[in-house]
Amino acid sequence: AQSVTQLGSHVSVSEGALVLLRCNYSSSVPPYLFWYVQYPNQGLQLLLKYTSAATLVKGINDFEAEFKKSETSFHLTKPSAHMSDAAEYFCAVSSLMDTGRRALTFGSGTRLQVQP
Amino acid sequence: EPEVTQTPSHQVTQMGQEVILRCVPISNHLYFYWYRQILGQKVEFLVSFYNNEISEKSEIFDDQFSVERPDGSNFTLKIRSTKLEDSAMYFCASEMADTQYFGPGTRLTVL
Q1: Inter-chain Cβ pairs, chain A and chain B, closer than 8 A
Q2: Closest C-alpha to A74, from A56, A62, A94
Q3: pLDDT in tens, A43-93
Q4: Which of A42, A90, A98 lies at the smallest CB-CB distance from B56?
Q5: Whole-angstrom distance, CA of residue B51 vs CA of residue A44
Q6: Cα–Cα distance, B12 to B41 (Å, whole number)
Q7: Which residues contact A93 (CB under 8 A, 6 or more apart)?
């Protein structure tokens, strides 16, 4: 079984400050890992993904995440927060199904607030 | 840029009624999924669909649920007899290159 733990349901940072959203995963097979962002009343937008290539992954809007197998982590960072980054962020791990396709298992989400 | 679309954006129904949620996946994608998110809870996998049949389904996806791709473009989720606990946001996703792209969701409210 796969699982994802996101530490901190709410994170608040000042505009211009570093953003760090934590994600730890559990997987019995090599995982695929994803970060999605959800703005109010909208769907899930892919930020970035790790699929066993480079461990440091860059995504949209200057977000990046580093896959650390030894720590089973995939934390999301951004050097400088912008007001428009305020949203809910979901970490997800791909579960390998019998068919070879992968259903996503999501974490509980972290709501990011950006203070002016 | 191609995107997944879903209709309606909001559906209100009475308990016991049937509802059909519609999705139009991205046109060259072959794998399709339904997920749901009960208010304040995690996004949960319901079912995956490939080559006109269900690939996998979760424990949530019981006999009250069904999916089909009736015309080669739409992908539907039917709930035969809605319960109060079916109230949730339902997301459709289609997959390419091991990445799932999500639609904006349908908010289902069961009264």
Answers
A1: 61
A2: A56
A3: 899 999 998 778 899 999 999 999 999 999 999 999 999 999 999 999 999
A4: A98
A5: 25
A6: 20
A7: A2, A3, A4, A25, A26, A27, A31, A32, A33, A34, A104, A105
Pull the structure tokens for residue A7: 């530490």
The three-class DSSP label of residue B85 is helix
CB–CB of A19/A13 below 8 Å?
Answer: yes
**The amino acid at B49:** F
pLDDT value, residue B93:
96
Cα B7 from Cα B106, distance rounded (Å): 7
Q: Which of B100, B101, B106, B107 should we substitute to test contact with A (largest number of A Cβ atoms within 10 Å)? A: B100
Residues of B in contact with A108 (CB under 8 A): 41-42
Task: Tell me the percentage of chain A whose pLDDT exceeds 90.
Answer: 73
Q: What is the pLDDT of residues B6-49, one digit of tens each?
A: 999 999 999 999 999 999 999 889 899 999 999 988 899 999 99
Residue among A32, A43, A108 whose CB faces B98 most closely: A32
Instruction: Pick the residue of B3, B41, B43 with the most A CBs within 10 A to test the interface with A by mutation.
Output: B43
Residue of A46, A90, A99 lying closest to B56 (CB–CB): A99
The residue assigned the tokens 């989400």 is A109
